[in-house]
Amino acid sequence: MNETLSKRQLNLLIDVSNVLNSSLSIDKIFQSIMKETINAIDAADGGVLFLYNKEEDALIAKSSQGFDPMIIENVKLKPGESMTGLAFLAKSCLLFPTQDQVRKTVLSMSEKNIEYMELSMEHYPYAAICAPIIRNGKGIGVITIDCFQKDGQFTQEDMDLLEAIAHQAAVALEKANLYRVQQQQFRELKELNNRIVEQNLMLQRSIELHNQLSDLVLEGEGLDSILQYINEQIGYPAILFDEIGEIVALSKHEWFSEELIDSLEKEVQLSWQAFNRHQTFVFSSQSVKSKKIVAFPVGSKQRLLGGLVIVSEQTVPELEIAALSHACTVVSLMLLKNQAVFDTEQALRGEFIDVILSGNMDEAFYQRAKHLHFQQNDFHVALIINFQEQKIDAKKWPTFERYLLQVIQRYIDEYVKNGMVVAKHDNITAILSFDEKLGNAHIRTTINTLIHHVKEYIQSRDWSIVPIVGVGRSFQGLKQIKKTLNEATKCLQFMKGYDLTTEILNYQDLGAQRLLLQNSKEELRDFIHETLEPLLQYDCQKQSDLFATLVVYLDHNKNIKNAAQSLHIHLNTLSYRLKRIYSILDIDPEDSQSMLDLHLSVNIYRYLNQ
Fold it and tell me: Which of 24, 128, 322, 453 could form a disulfide with 202 if both were Cys (CB 3.0 to 4.6 A apart)?
């Protein structure tokens, strides 16, 4: 082709080639091709360089001269569409020497392309040349140049020069494309290298933190120390939650006020499903809006043990997140170790109670009692807690139970001389020891306060469990523990057997009713029917309150004056009512046996109808 070019055209082509090869930037080459082409061809007033996009199957404008670039870049020509599309399919340079030919060919474009084309220029060109850019036999684009002067025209020499420029453009574009591919590969290799370096740093940091935490475990440090170490070494205060969202341990930090900890605990429990997906996640906190909260699941996919939550003022780097994720392995092992120790301790305490109930108290038993700090001269009281209404997942119940055991044990350690608590036979059994110098009133108050403390703890957590408690009497000596345990058990049986609504029953309060614990509910109701039925029917028929009067009278130990004051009635009125009651029941108030039966029946009736 170069043989057909004039000396002037060859010089122009050399200049164009030098300019095209002066840069490896695709965008600069696009601009240079159009600029140098317009300068080299005298009749050229403007033009557009199109490149073929295989994915869109369209020729897309990449650079232009004499057109509005903001508009022309929207033109997308299909192969065969307009002058440019025809040259692309023909793979040869095409000349459109007149405006009519240009307009006729342009009208083959889509309506949208025609609209963009007409908006981008003042009028249709008077002539145009389209030269395909071909590389390795495949069309990769088209250079279209236009003449907007009415008396202008393109020659065969212009077509030959444009075709030669298109060939040079193909070489320059391929070279720039190869350079771009190499640059992309270099960037990818550099990015890959950076990732490898970063991952090595993460691994190194993770191993370092893991080893340091492992050393703390081997030195016998607990979870609080581990979290404090995380705070000091990585710089983030941390809180560890168990599988039901209760706080297990936390590092010391100025941010952690009681209000903030309570708020975080509630928000973590609301986000708990995210922990079950075993993925590290970030969540926003209403309590600490300016802080970043990152949560790490602790445990395996088969069993979630809890979650580690850290608080930061800034976004936590990926390096630290990776290190903390690995640190959770050590935390998991610590939680499993603590649970194993707790379970072993519970098993030993359960065996201790079994020996007490069996009565086979040998030397080994007394040695174990000494180890548990039980003294022979102390007074011992047993209380047994049962949960009638329990709407908690059976898989999670052991965790709830463990918390209740810990709450009770902490109270015992702080307010009672000694004692232990153990989960046994779906109940929680506690044995409390008191100094022999303390009176029964002190013991009773301490136990009531403990039960109230447990109920408040359950309510504060919104746990769907309702405790009922049976309490035995206090007895001195280790051998008497069996007796107080049996009494607490009987109280629970009494509450369950007779559907009592009371939540606490003290064996000491049963009085004579304890003699009836072995009787069935039907037998007790028969006894009430034989003793009280006439009076109850009379009250029902006459809308009177004689039974209530009888209850107050008996509660005041048959003291007429005190009972009348309590009822706010005159002494004579009370005397009349009592005579009426004795008459209806057909009993003699002087007959001690009849009065004993009456008193007993009233108390049983009250228990059964609480």
Answer: 322
